[in-house]
Design goal:
Rossmann fold, 14% strand, binds phosphoric acid mono(formamide)ester, four-stranded parallel sheet, 43% helix, 305 residues, 2 domains, binds norvaline, 13 helices
Length: 305
């Protein structure tokens, strides 16, 4: 039976830990330039309703390194739900390809693709979730901190798709998640309630930014206005300003904290240049690890591993 990766809880704890191991194995092979054609001859349809640098390039290069092919299908080609229904797009792509990765607006679009395609579907970001990002980020934390538990992670800013996926991960791996989020921009209430009910992690929304970064091992931020919310940018800037990741703010975190951003960054807004380019920043390691974790996900779903 085919499996999808639409949300982090689609994998259990052991599977997630195995993905970190596989990603590190594949990363080592890339560094040694060792061939690893685990998906030889396979094709991944990559549907994009929104722009992308990291997701598009890492999936396309990842498929190439695995001996397969990634096929970019932008809004002009597919016209998802306009030129053709999502269900029909899914059924047709499943006749040509071995997997689908989709970056979409409404989360229902990626769940519909998963429902109607009898090949694995991977969520490459929806308005609700960004699961590949957060698995790659935890791999980066593991590399820098040597562990994925007993860590205080402070997420600063908007309760968006990235925040929701952090909460999902906290329902499976034990962390202390301090969400520094201004009133009115909370994460999805069902995701939060469900994660809290699992009792795996201590998850708290904190309105005071200084308190939210207190004793953090990891300080994480994302844009204040996500793709599709551009018209709210100016209004959000005023409300989010106190949550900006600056030298002054991270003085409250642990002295050896790492600073993370899923990118693209709006330097001078949610993160200062000083911090983004400074000694705490691991943002480009994070970007690189998208490649390695997604290759592990592709192999798990498409390679009968
Ligand atoms: N972080 C991330 O998903 O980047 P892109 O939007 O460039 O793909
Ligand atoms: N929250 C951001 C993430 C970009 C990778 C967005 O959805 O635009």
């Amino acid at each position: 039976m085919k499996r999808d990766f639409v949300a982090i809880p689609d994998f259990d704890r052991d599977e997630i830990i195995n993905l970190f191991d596989l990603a590190q194995e594949l990363k080592a092979k890339v560094k040694k330039r060792e061939e690893h054609h685990l998906l030889k001859g396979q094709a991944l349809a990559m549907i994009f309703q929104k722009p992308s640098n990291r997701t598009r390039v890492s999936f396309e290069v990842g498929m190439y390194q695995l001996g397969g092919h990634g096929l970019y299908l932008g809004p002009a080609e597919i016209g998802l739900g306009k030129r053709e229904s999502t269900a029909d797009v899914a059924r047709v792509l499943a006749r040509y390809c071995d997997g689908i990765m989709a970056r979409v607006f409404g989360h229902d679009i990626v769940t519909d693709l998963a429902k109607y395609a009898d090949i694995p579907v991977i969520n490459g970001l929806s308005d609700l979730l960004h699961p590949c990002q957060i698995l790659g980020d935890m791999l980066t934390i593991l590399e820098h901190k040597g562990r994925y538990s007993e860590l205080t992670i402070s997420y600063m800013g908007d309760g968006n798709n990235v925040a929701n996926s952090w909460i999902n991960l906290a329902s499976i791996l034990p962390v202390k998640l301090q969400l520094g989020i201004p009133q009115g921009f909370d994460p999805d209430e069902h995701i939060l309630k469900s994660a809290k009910s699992k009792g795996m992690s201590d998850i708290e929304i904190i309105r005071d930014p200084v308190q939210a970064v207190q004793s953090a091992d990891v300080v994480y931020t994302d844009v204040w206005a996500s793709m599709g919310q551009e018209e709210e940018s100016e209004k959000r800037k005023t409300l989010f300003r106190p949550f900006a990741v600056s030298g002054e703010l991270i003085a409250n975190a642990k002295s050896d904290c790492i600073v993370m951003h899923c990118l693209p960054a709006h330097r001078g807004d949610e993160i200062t240049d000083e911090i983004m380019d400074g000694k705490h920043s691991v943002v480009f390691d994070q970007a690189e690890n998208r490649l390695h974790i997604q290759k592990a996900i592709l192999v798990k779903l498409m390679g009968n591993q």
